Amino acid sequence: MLRVDHVSAHYDGVQALWGVSLQVEEGAIVALVGSNGAGKTTLLRAISRLLPVSEGSITLDGRDLASAGSHDVVEAGVAHVPEARQLFPMMTVRENLEMGAYLPAARAQAAQTIAHVFDLFPILGERRAQLASTLSGGEQQMLAIGRGLMLRPRLLILDEPSLGLAPLVVRSILDIVRRVNREGVSVLLVEQNVSHALAIATSAYVLENGRVVLHGPAAELAGNPHVKRAYLGL
Ligand code: ATP
Q1: Amino acid 164: pLDDT
Q2: Residue 207: CB partners within 8 Å, gap ≥ 6?
């Protein structure tokens, strides 16, 4: 469904991505791993058209996104949950979810989608009237994912959903990601927690210094000596 072909991107003349290629097949969970500054967030931002691409192409269902704006990408069914969560702190949980359904088709189904999000994350249902700023880190991450789901996406892009969270919370969030995927949403997941990411992913890409250095089935990468040494501490 998503195809990134030889993409390069720059920040003020400094090159951050070098000919990166990646594919997300319908129904897959694709993990993108790599150390700090490898270019993972940059690649996600290029896909969502939040950052211009200087070379290469990005297509969604065969449609070139070169002339698309970030809004077109959302309309095409891609929801991007950024690393910093970017919630509306002075709005309640429910209001944040409602704000997420900003496309007409999503708005029409907002009530059902909110019920579904509360089913996935019962704690958010319990705290529906609480201000987002007063949620715990894990709850905020759940709300950020829930808000992404309000768009009823076909592809969910998650930038480090486990950042700063306790191991138990990380596991429960990744379990939900797997459940969302089973319900038919493809996922592109950036994750520093490589062992967790590889455990739920179909395939994975390793990015180093803005280049893909390895890719393949997640189970295969989990056994790769370089991945084991550099990312799994084995
Ligand atoms: P992390 O896990 O730390 O978030 P990352 O793999 O997501 O890392 P990026 O944030 O994509 O890495 O950064 C890739 C490179 O681009 C880094 O060298 C970073 O310093 C640089 N970079 C990122 N954002 C900007 C920016 N707004 N302006 C200039 N350079 C940037």
Answers
A1: 85
A2: 20, 32, 33, 34, 38, 39, 40, 43, 213
